[in-house]
Amino acid sequence: MKTGRIPQQVVVLSVIAVVVVAGFFGMRALFVPESFGKYGHYRADSVDAIRKLPIQYGGAKACAECHDEVAATKSQGFHRGVSCEVCHGPAAAHIEDPGTIKPTAPRQRELCPLCHNYSPSRPTGFPQILTAQHNPGKPCMSCHKPHDPVPPNAPKECSACHRGIWSQKLVSPHASLECSTCHEVPKEHSVDPRGFVVSKPTGNQACERCHSNAALAASAIPQVTSEHTARYLCWDCHYPHFPEGKK
Amino acid sequence: MDPSLLEPSTGYIYPNEYFLQWELLIVLYPYITGLVAGAFILASLERVFKVKALWPVYRLALLSALAFMIVAPLPLLAHLGHPERSLEMFLTPHTTSAMAMFGFVYAWYLLVVLLLEVWFDYRREIVIWSQESKAPWRYVYKALTLGATDISDAAIKFDDRAGRLITIIGIPSAFLLHGYVGFIFGSVKANPWWSSVLMPVVFLFSAIVSGMAIVMLIYMVTSWIRWKPIDMACLNKLGEFLLYALIVDFSLELLDFIHRLYESEESIHILSQLITDRLFISLVILQVLMGALIPIFGLVAARFGRLPDEMRRMIYFLVGILIQVGIFSMRWNVVVGGQMFSKSLRGLTVYKVHLFGLEGLLFTIGLLLLPVVILYVLVKLLPPWIDGQEDGALAAQPH
Amino acid sequence: MSLDKEQGPGPGIVTTAGPASTVEVDTAAMDRRQFFDLCKKALPAGMALLAAGTPISGLASAETEAAAGALPEPKMPSYAMAIDVEKCIGCGRCAAACKAENKVPPSPHYVRTWVERYVVPREGEALVDSPNAGIDGFPDQPEVDILKTFFAPKLCNQCANPPCVQVCPVGATFQTRDGVVLVDDDYCVGCRYCIQACPYGARYLHPEKLVADKCTFCYHRITQGLLPACVEVCPTEARVFGDLNSRSSPIQRVLRFNPIMSLKAELNTRPKVFYANADQEIR
Fold it and tell me: Closest residue of B to C126, CA-based?
């Protein structure tokens, strides 16, 4: 019972193999999405679908189109870089339908501390408060205008913006020193911090006023000879805001 | 407070790492494919390398491999978020993805290797049974002949030659099947617990170990159920090969371990923490001690010691079970262990097995029992027993 | 819709502009109410134009306009983000905006972007946390002797050599021609191999859609000339978004003047999220 000289098994299996392979290519032709492979191994239509997803945040420029006065105020203040929707929430729907859909406006103390509550991890110079101690219970808005957040009174303490440094210094042997002992602080710095920059000591003289063995100082203050400081600036080794103290 | 916010993890994990992505089902998958590859390689020992002592388990090993192979894709399918889209893996396979190759490796192995091998091996009997059995079975066998009813001497000789050829193709295919499963894990550079060139090799040898052990177990259990004597020569030979494979497997795992320890890369701290805090029982106790060391000693004693046969059978049986536990733990340690530490290398998360649901324990046990059911049907349909008959004789009676 | 214009508005994309800018009108000549009415009428038309792939007129550069004449295709943008760690104040507004913009599940265990806090003590390992992705701030302060401490926002690194795309078995996650790695919701089988392959923990399985999900650089926004939501709301410009192929993009300045590092550079994923002034603890 042979089909020519090809064994019957081979014939049968060949037929099945052809059916399977044909089925495979048939399925491919039938089920592979049309846009698949247009630009790469993916559905090109998917890119379109993703591009058409709805937008929630309209963008600060769109806000400024109508709220030009607020935008103008804000552009001069410390919050110029803060987009409207940071505080007012996503407002794309409001842009499309300004009459009925209104964005929220936070009026209590819930939002501002997210940025301005003190955290040592925040960069120094960023204005921070201890929320629990800073006029507890009072809405931030009662003193600070969010669109032009100048404090009603210029901060007197450096800790308003440099609390990390301040709190370290507080527990260090330098606790009794004023910031102005080493830094020259222009009066305007507290209202225009970037315009009027605080100076930093440039040489060892600043430290030597107290720590040189030639200086007139209390015996509790460690003193060194000029050889000790040769080649180095004092703060190459000692962190001035948190020096080691006397062993 | 939302209970999910009570972090059971230690250290820091990325927010998205809270849930494990691959759970019990994906532990099951390499375990089952390992059984397939191992059982097939065992069968090929008889067929290609002419280890005559293994003749009593040759067909049983083939049918076991087939039974496990049928179940192998089910855990994968069940774990998919969209199983209905699984055909995409065949239709638009991404050539750079190890996982996309699964469909093809699986299809090749199931269709071209296992089914063909079984078909050629049983074809003469199928044709005879299709003529001799009673009504319903008759048609089943008729269908199974696929229309090829020639059982002349020349045709049978062709069957034999074809079977041998397929087995020869089948060995590298079995290596491919399981080596590639190892590659799926070993090639993930983001995961230091997985990323290792040894992973495919370790997977392969653990597959051989688990496959041989499961065939040994199946052989012993089926013999007991059928009240037939166990062929001790066959069992001893099986034990011997199992011992060799186990030693190679254990050495490779040890090499991998020592290599990691010695290279001591950035990840070593979190990985040592992983082993001591999370995987101690499943890795040190179950995988190494109970899954490798005790079986090695047991096999040495049973194979080379002067023990009564009854004692040997007992040891082989216990060793077979311990090896299954050990290899399953190995899959667990790879799959689950690899997700229990954060890729930030700063913390560990936890994983609790659920009882219910697709990723649950009950479903897993069900999937583990399914091959037994399939094997039962296969054995009824294509009896593999030889019971003291001559090589090539028609052993079992059809229905 | 034709994808020929997939590059969107072309170079100069990073200057923020709302959809409203699609209508060029002399606003000085009318009051606000009239302007609204005009917007209402013009917006759908503007949107339709957008949907047809037309570059926003206000943003279209000479290059793109030349392309409208079907001549040489303008250079594809190569979107990228720079994160200046020194500027991040850890307010978590980025993570909150991302959840709102992209309808990310509210659970803290599904995030597209998150803010990590690093506290490096004088002795011992750095402490890292990210409670609810940083959305509610960082109320608890670890009681350690701090050497230094800072925040680090994280997101999909939009790798130029993305391991997630490499391992996707079906082509459901892919890199667009402008370099953004996206997920095709309607094609993903939910195998989660990409989640395993991502070294940054940027992906998760969406609990309802059961497909992989991750940051898209707000692809629906950037292709319209808007900024990604996280960049839009970042109050300190710690996040800067731009086009690497445009010389006049704000990202160029960040890259020029700062020491830059990529996360897990040793894995050769070549991220398009660049970290400026970042500490080696960030990983």
Answer: B346
pLDDT top residue among C55 and A183: A183
Residue with tokens 């050539």: B95
Buried b (16+ CB within 10 A) or exposed e, A57-67: bbbbbbbbbbb
Reported as a single tens digit per residue, the pLDDT across B81-108 is 999 999 999 999 999 998 888 778 888 8
Segments making up each domain of chain A, as ranges = 1-32, 57-99, 116-200, 202-247
Rounded Cα gap, residues C104 and C98, in angstroms: 7
Query: What's the gap in Å between the CA of C62 and the closest CA on chain A?
Result: 22
Q: The tokens 């050889």 sit on which residue?
A: A227
B89 falls within a domain? yes
Q: Is the dihedral of CA A233, A238, A240, A245 positive or negative?
A: negative
pLDDT at residue C16 in the model: 41
More confident residue, C135 or B390: C135
pLDDT per residue as tens digits for the range C30-47? 454 455 555 555 554 444
**Averaged pLDDT for residues A48-59:** 95
Give tens-digit pLDDT for B184-193. Answer: 999 999 999 9
| Phi and psi, residue A205, nearest 5° | -55, -35
CB burial string A96-126: b at 16+ within 10 A, e below: bebeeeebeeeeebebbbbbbbbbbbbbeeb
Is B147 within 8 Å of A20 when comparing Cβ atoms? no
Q: String of b and e for B384-395 (b: at least 16 CB within 10 Å)?
A: bbbeeeeeeeee
For residue A113, pLDDT over 80 is answered with yes
Query: What pLDDT, on the 0 to 100 scale, is given for residue B178?
Result: 85
Contacts of A178 (CB under 8 A, 6+ apart): none
Residue B209 in any domain: the answer is no
**B155 contacts A31? CB cut-off 8 A:** no
Q: Which of C111, C197, C198 sits opposite B15 (nearest CB)?
A: C111
Asked whether C128 and B346 are in contact (CB, 8 A), the reply is yes
* Close Cβ partners of C120 (under 8 Å, ≥ 6 residues apart): C126, C127, C146, C147, C148, C149, C279, C281
Give the tens place of pLDDT for each residue, B264-285: 999 999 999 999 999 999 999 9
Q: How many helices (H) and strands (E) does chain A have?
A: 10, 0
* Number of domains, chain B: 1
ipTM of model: 0.91
Q: Nearest residue of A to residue C238 by CA position?
A: A81
Range(s) of the domain holding residue B384: 25-187+358-399
Interface test mutation site (partner C, options B13, B21, B95, B104, max chain C beta carbons within 10 A): B21
Q: Are C283 and B12 in contact (CB under 8 A)?
A: no
pLDDT digits (tens, 9 = 90+) for C113-131: 999 999 999 999 999 999 9
CB–CB contacts below 8 A, B to C:
133
Q: How many CB atoms lie within 10 A of CB C92?
A: 25
